[in-house]
Amino acid sequence: MASALRDWLDKPNTGRGVHLAADDGGWDFRGYGELASAARRTAGALIEEGVRPGDVVCLILPTDFTCIETYFGVWAAGATVCLITPPLFQDGDDYVAHVAAILRQAEPVLVAASADLADYAGRAMAQAGLPGEPWLPRQAAAEAEVQPAGELALLQFTSGSSGAPRGVMVTWDNLEANSELIARTAGFEDDDVVASWLPLYHDMGLIGCFLTPIARQGALRLMRPDHFIRDPARWIRCFAEAQHTAAPPFAYAYCARRVKPEQLEGLDLSGWKMALIGAEPIDPHSLEVFAELLEPFGFSRTAFRPAYGMAETTLLVTMDKELRDPLAVRPDPESLSFGTPVRILEEHSLGPRSLGAKAGWIVGCGTPEEDVPVRIVDDEGRAMPEGVLGEIVVGGASACPGYFAGAEAKSTRFVDGEVYTGDAGFFHAGQLFVLGRMGDSIKVRGRSVYVEDLESKIAEVSGLGKGRIVVVGVPGAGQKGLALFAETLDDAWVPEVREMLRRRVGEDVEVTIVVGTGLIQRTSSGKPRRRYMWERLKDGKMDGARVVA
Asked: SS3 sequence, 243-284?
């Protein structure tokens, strides 16, 4: 299968390329001619190792030129890429177990790893029952011809679940359609520059800020996440030249806390076209404090582009492409029930009034494009009109065909070419407003944390059997929440569990703990009816329930 996403490997623009952040504060540059040549030599080495079109190759590499060359080398060899995160906050054993779970499902013909990560990769391969050793990236003497590709461009594994990873199958058609959607709604022009610190294993960093600009041979300034954490002003300084970026809401708030105006002295940010915000529910306060920091340097609030997307729809679903200040609303929490109208208590465009608007507020994520239809449905799958809360359902060419190797999720489902997202939302003033996950996961710092993993840990800490515990991801306006239902009258274990959850999901996730008997409702196949249980509790219909925290 041919793909425009690989065309640059045959026709590189030698005048442009990638600027990679160096640890000393400078930048290293390689042009697209040099990168294409290295990728095709890497493809030659992969082919020598037996990689063939349609095979899966897993990469465990830090963000560097070797990663870029190996990624496109896999594509040049016609294979499917599966990028796996380097270890971040997990200890060694947890990380190896997480990688092994991915490898068992992906069944790669080759696992490539950097020298410093080869030990982790080898241990994970052994746990997964894969023979051989990790492959250290290398280049053949001659450039290989770009090979025909199989159906899948990449496997995008959801992060955060060590027990049950799910690899989204992203076809070449999915990826091309979504890359075109991103470029069109962002207003990406030929000579525009993209700057990003997002990790490449995450869909927003990989597809939005890496593959899309490279496929168009746009100039790219690429940092590692640790570069951003240590010096967020370095990222902002990129926009004296760059026009486009993307980041989760917490990153904008982090910049406002850490960056001092004197660090930006003499900077002109008036050319900054787009600062996409996504991956988590968006609170207006985070955006406003960032805007007030940068406004004296020419930044405009109209550069903010709130967006909604997920790996199961390749990436982008909606983005506010209008040149306007983002719209924030505060819904009445008592009205947030599926299939019922949402009462809006307050609304305003982003500005000084947004300071302090955190929990309870959400920001509009734009109007759907014709080629990515979005609808809201109730629990019975019936389409809901504007203003009514329900589940977000996405169609169009970006909707992926499913999870790899028959894996399933409890909230996100693939039905007749549409993705039932498991996210709660509603339309207001023509825009999509997203409350967040309702069911089997929540987003924490852009990472999916699955409730099955939390249930196992809670069972261990509390001493209760796993069958007596159900955790539900609870959407709320401008905040994330978890509800824990425990079949017991004893609550002595609650403080220890609360502390464990605080460490796992952070301070900004609201946790509700409920004890009692007869609380847990299950389907005929034995699966917990998570959303149904939460709705019953909220409506006061759960007899015997006692909220203890």
From this structure: CEEEECHHHHHHHHHHCCHHHHCCCCCCCCCEEEECCCCCCH
Q: What is the pLDDT of residue 202?
A: 85
Cβ atoms within 10 A of the Cβ of 142, count? 9
Distance from C-alpha of 472 to C-alpha of 451, rounded to nearest angstrom: 7
**Pairs from 463-467 (Cβ < 8 Å, separation ≥ 24):** 463/493, 464/488, 464/493
Q: Where are the domains of the chain?
A: 441-548
Residue 303 tokens, joined: 């550069």
Look at residue 95 and tell me whether its pLDDT is greater than 80: yes
Secondary-structure percent of the chain, ordered helix, strand, coil, rounded to 5: 35, 25, 40
Contacts of 180 (CB under 8 A, 6+ apart): none
Residues making up the chain, counted from first to last: 549
- Taking only the tens place, the pLDDT of each residue in 504-540 is 787 778 888 999 988 888 765 456 777 778 878 877 8
Residue 510 to residue 474: CA distance in whole angstroms: 9
In our burial notation (b when 16+ CB lie closer than 10 A, e otherwise), range 95-130 reads: bbbbbbbbbebbebbbbbbbeebbebbbbbbeebeb
Give me the DSSP letters along 88-133.
SSS-HHHHHHHHHHHHHHH--SEEEE-GGGHHHHHHHHHHHT--S-
484 close to 497: Cβ distance less than 8 angstroms: yes
C-alpha distances in Å from residue 46, one per residue of 105, 139, 409 = 21, 8, 33
Strand partners, 72: none
Question: Which residue, among 318, 346, 320, 319, has the nearest Cα to 332 in the 3D structure?
Answer: 346
Q: Are 102 and 167 in contact (CB under 8 A)?
A: yes
Q: Which residues pair with 58 in a beta bridge?
A: 82, 111
More reliable by pLDDT, 220 or 201 = 220
Instruction: Tell me yes or no: is domain 441-548 CATH 3.30.300.30.
Output: yes
